[in-house]
């Protein structure tokens, strides 16, 4: 599993807001297929956290690169770190 963080340059943009339905539809489909376990924005609007399941970092990067927010250039940086849950729902 991988913890993926998105960073947005601007706290809010009209173009990103307009793209949000496509972004959320894409995310919901990935959750339904099991490649993304959970996702949500940071409450300050600076980005988001995704928990992604993939075989390796390259696969996780390729997956999130297809997110409409990434495709449209609304994500200024993506950080991917391998993550090992020990307790809780995803362990």
UniProtKB/TrEMBL annotation:
Coiled coil: none
Xref: Pfam families: YCII
Annotated ranges, domain YCII-related: 1-84
Recorded family membership: Belongs to the YciI family.
Superkingdom of the organism of origin: Bacteria
Name of the protein described by the UniProt record: YciI family protein
Signal sequence, start to end: none
């Amino acid at each position: 599993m991988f913890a993926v963080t998105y960073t947005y340059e601007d706290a809010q943009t009209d173009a990103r807001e307009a793209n949000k339905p496509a972004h959320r539809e894409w995310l919901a489909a990935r959750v339904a297929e099991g490649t993304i376990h959970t996702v949500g924005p940071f409450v300050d609007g600076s980005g988001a956290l995704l928990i992604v399941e993939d075989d390796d970092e390259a696969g996780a990067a390729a997956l999130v690169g297809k997110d409409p927010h990434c495709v449209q250039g609304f994500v200024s940086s993506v950080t991917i770190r391998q993550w090992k849950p020990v307790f809780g729902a995803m362990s």
